[in-house]
Specification:
two-stranded antiparallel ribbon; Chorismate lyase; Arc Repressor Mutant, subunit A; about 240 residues; six-stranded antiparallel beta sheet
């Protein structure tokens, strides 16, 4: 968007100029004037093209930063934050959701192994103490941007070779005739550990969203426990409520 004049705040209005500009920029972002990861105009550009002070431009950008709409990369500039709007009423895998939103999904595998289950996994997957599980840990990416850390556990009887899973766990399960048809999902706020912060590129202690999902087959057998640690600045969860 080269012509910024439509975003000029109106100094005849009682609303502070920086708030007017922040709202105009927010509307332009939601309208698709800038794409995900595209550079935003700098404070200097906004100031010069809109005839406002750099303080006003800076405060407007800080509002967008607080909202998670943009992010600053030291030495590079300010960029549009990629965001995923995920409806809570539809069961879908990460890859399917990204493709529907126009992103290219990919993964970086950190761990794929057959091992013994934890006590919690025994209970959630209705396993016997001698049963083994396939445990997988990976970074989930959208257009090469790390969005989340995903840790999935399934019975080894369902998945004896976790190395065969590609980008989509659900597509793999569909392919072997074990589709997950329903799931229970819990969402809670956590603070990023040092390990998770380093993996997704945020400061330790930053708020993250933890989604815990238990997936079931048609006969109500639980076969999946997945913990997804999401960057909270990249996700919007949407629920439609009716009376």
């Amino acid at each position: 968007m080269n012509d910024l004049h439509a975003l000029r705040p109106d100094d005849s209005q009682p609303t502070p100029l920086y708030l007017q500009l922040a709202r105009n920029l927010e509307a332009a972002i939601h309208a698709g004037q800038w794409k995900s990861e595209q550079a935003m105009p700098s404070e200097r550009n906004l100031s010069e093209q809109l005839g406002i002070s750099r303080v006003t431009a800076r405060k407007a950008l800080e509002v967008l930063l607080d909202q998670g709409l943009i992010r600053r990369l030291q030495g590079s500039g300010t960029f549009i934050t990629p965001r995923l709007e995920q409806p809570l009423s539809r069961l879908s895998g990460f890859s399917e959701m990204l493709r529907l939103k126009g992103f290219v999904p990919s993964s970086k595998w950190l761990e794929r192994e057959i091992t013994l289950p934890t006590h919690e996994e025994l209970i959630r997957l209705s396993l016997s103490p001698n049963d083994k599980v396939a445990r997988m840990k990976r970074l989930r990416k959208a257009d090469d941007t790390v969005m989340a850390i995903e840790m999935s556990t399934l019975p080894a009887s369902i998945m004896p070779k976790p190395q065969l899973v590609g980008d989509s766990l659900y597509e793999y399960l569909d392919g072997i005739g074990k589709p997950i048809v329903r799931a229970l999902q819990h969402i809670q706020a956590i603070n990023a550990s040092d390990e998770f912060a380093a993996l997704v590129g945020i400061a330790p202690g930053t708020a993250m969203l933890l989604m815990t999902r238990v997936g079931y087959l048609e006969d109500n057998t639980p076969i999946e426990v997945t913990d997804t640690y999401c960057r909270n600045d990249y996700y919007d969860f949407v629920a439609e409520l009716r009376r």
